[in-house]
Amino acid sequence: MTPESEPIQSGPEAPEAPAGAYIYDLKAAPNRQVELPKTVPLPGLQAYLADQKAALEADEAKWQKQLADYEAKLQALPEGKEAPKPPVRAAAKKDDYDMKTPVPSAPQDADLLRLVELLGERMEEAFEQAGELTCQVAKEHLLEALRICREDKQLKYEMLADEAATHYPAAEGFAFSVVYHLTSLSRHKRLRLRILIPEGFEPESACAVYRNADWLEREIFDMDGIRFAHHPDMVRILCPDDWEAHPLRKEYPVVGWGQRDIDFREDRSGRLARIAQEKAGNLGINLKVPKAE
Amino acid sequence: MFDATDFMEINMGPQHPSTHGVLRLKLKLSGETVMACRPVIGYLHRGVEKICENKTFFQTQVWTDRMDYCSAVANNLGWAESVEKLFGITVPRRAQYIRTMLAEYNRLASHLIWLATHALDIGAMTVFLYAFREREQILDLFESFCGARLTTTAFRIGGLREDFPPGFEKQARAFLDRFPSCIEEYEILLTENRIWKKRTIGVAKLNAEDAIALGVTGPVLRAAGVPFDIRKAFPYAAYAEMDFEVPTRLEADTYARYQVRLEEMKQSARIIRQCLDGLPEGPTMAKLPKILRSEVNEIYHATESPKGELGYYLVGEKGSLNPYRFHVRAPGFANLQALPHMVEGGLVADIIAAIGTLDVVLGEIDR
Asked: Which of A9, A33, A34, A99 to substitute to test the interface with B, most B CBs within 10 Å?
């Protein structure tokens, strides 16, 4: 006989979490300044193509300027003097490294095409990169997309392997990306669903489709402060219940109170720190020295 | 059905010796029957993901050692392959073989420590001593290869730092020759042992449907009859060239998981022998620039760690030395979520068997 059981709630000692997300107050702790990222490294086919186009245009503009400069020099050249060498267009750098950075390409995989067809307007972007399939769906239609992936006869993604969120403070129009890594055990395929959400938006919990989203979403709430609507138990999981902020946001500092300075006590003249700086400089690493309190 | 006074709420852990670290379970009992169970984790949370976002790609490896400290090489392998996938690096074949071999030795070490502690929890003391005897020799092999026994930091981005030391192959082969008789010893002690069978058969069942819905992977999933092994499904390292089987059982209980893991150890020994026999000549390190600067890219790479699917999710920022996002899908985290489902309705003493059979290591669960 299996007794009917009720899940234990967090208990009276667990304080009620505040309604919104905690945002770290940087002004309150001037010694814990962090440098916020300035770029938005969100992989995508459209962004990649736009980047490529901009780079090509910049290259072409540079070349045109070089040509124009040369022409001007020729014009200004006094009679009888030898003409300067014509400019040579710089070729792309070649190396013999065993490294080929994967770039995004248009969807070709049957699964991705099928999903694009089924989702239609609800799909925002689909591409392949490094052999992985990514499909970005509109944030309101997440549950439908997950259901399609799980229940469609041709797709059959039975398992939610992982769920993770990334904070993009420099982005416009959204603040987080949440990715769902789905696995098809029967067909040995993987697929990534992605949504982009602004600050304060509560995406639907995936628990209705994949039961194991429970803990994964609790971890995302704990680490990034994203609340999921209709989640059975939206409390912290790794940090203590009264922790003051969400650690994986980019504005959360890694240098804290009691952090040991790089100029340790024996190094009064700063010699060791200087050597460390020089070594780091040779390697091209920007070693930031935290200021003493 | 039950009166409120019938229940007793107690805490198990976080300092309970059978919880393999600092796992705390809030239990609601009716007599000896578990009515509800709520795992409380996070006592070992060090913020590995945040730390790794602020380290260069090279520096993050030492943190992967310290997640699942019983299988550091498997963590290193997953990390190295993920970073290589992010950058599109091709690793020489010899390095792939050595990596595969060390990862399989690590599977042996991890399964041995699982067997030792699981049997000890249930009350079979002798197996503990036998299993640790063999594990010690594997750790000696690791030490001769990379200088460390537990936190190995065994690999480098693009290959290996060093080839084998002299004498390594002889030592490795000597271990392999002896190992089948060791497994026989464990089997004599446990497989037909009446107490062992009573404590494990039919205990902490998790059928295939629930296991898939709860995201459970590794031996626990295979003991439920699902032949899903990432080494076969999405081959990485040199596993595509290896000949091995994926053991499965249909009973989906603790005894079936014991059988699956024992069979996996035999298969691991088979893989190691194939690696040693077919070890190709050549370099062990890819040609790479001194400094790796990433492009905009995101990858999820999963490997079959001894505990299940170990996935790394990395996001690269253009021109950056650090990963923009470093996320680990720890197998123990997903497997532990199934614990309430496995123990509710059973006896409180069977919780010990359930924790043991899930093979939890809190270092990777809390990260």
From this structure: A99
CATH fourth-level superfamily of B47-366: Cytochrome-c3 Hydrogenase, chain B (1.10.645.10)
Task: Find the DSSP H helices in chain B.
Answer: 48-53, 61-65, 72-87, 93-122, 125-146, 168-190, 194-200, 208-213, 219-222, 230-233, 254-277, 331-336, 339-343, 349-358, 362-366
Bridge partner residues of B315 (DSSP): B298, B325
**Interface residue A130 vs chain B (CB under 8 A):** yes
User: Quick one: pLDDT at residue B102?
Assistant: 92
Test B297 with A43 for CB contact under 8 angstroms. Answer: yes
Torsion angle defined by CA atoms of residues B261, B214, B342 and B355, in that order, rounded to the nearest 10 degrees: 50
Domain ranges of chain A: 43-74, 103-224
Question: How many Cα atoms are found within 13 Å in the side-chain-facing hemisphere of B58?
Answer: 14
* Whether pLDDT at B1 is above 70: no
pLDDT in tens, B194-225: 889 888 998 888 989 999 999 999 999 999 99
Chain A residues touching residue B327 (CB < 8 angstroms): 162, 164
pLDDT, one tens digit per residue, over A155-178 is 889 999 999 999 998 888 899 999
User: What is the model's pTM?
Assistant: 0.84
What's the start-to-end Cα distance of chain A, in Å? 63
User: What does DSSP say about strands A132-137 and A189-197: parallel, antiparallel, or unpaired?
Assistant: parallel
The tens digit of pLDDT for each residue in B219-245 reads: 999 999 999 999 999 999 889 999 999
pLDDT band of A100, cuts 50, 70, 90: confident
**Closest-CA distance of chain B to residue A140, Å:** 23
Q: Which two tokens stand for residue B176?
A: 């392999």
CA separation for the pair A228, A21 (Å, rounded): 12
Structural tokens at position A57: 């245009």
Instruction: Write down the CATH superfamily of domain A103-224.
Output: NADH:ubiquinone oxidoreductase Nqo5 subunit (3.30.460.80)
How far apart CA B40 and CA B57 sit, in angstroms, is: 32
User: Rounded to whole angstroms, how far apart are CA atoms B225 and B235?
Assistant: 20
Under the banding of pLDDT at 50, 70 and 90, the label for residue A20 is low
Q: So what's the ipTM on this one?
A: 0.89
pLDDT of A164 reads 93
A171 touches chain B (CB under 8 A): no
Asked if A184 contacts A176 with a C-beta cutoff of 8 angstroms, the reply is no
Give the Cα separation of B306 and B111 in Å (integer).
7
User: Mind listing the pLDDT tens digit for each residue in A231-240?
Assistant: 988 888 998 8
Of A42, A47, A162, the CB nearest to B311: A162
Q: Answer whether A3 sits within 8 Å of B2, measured CB to CB.
A: yes
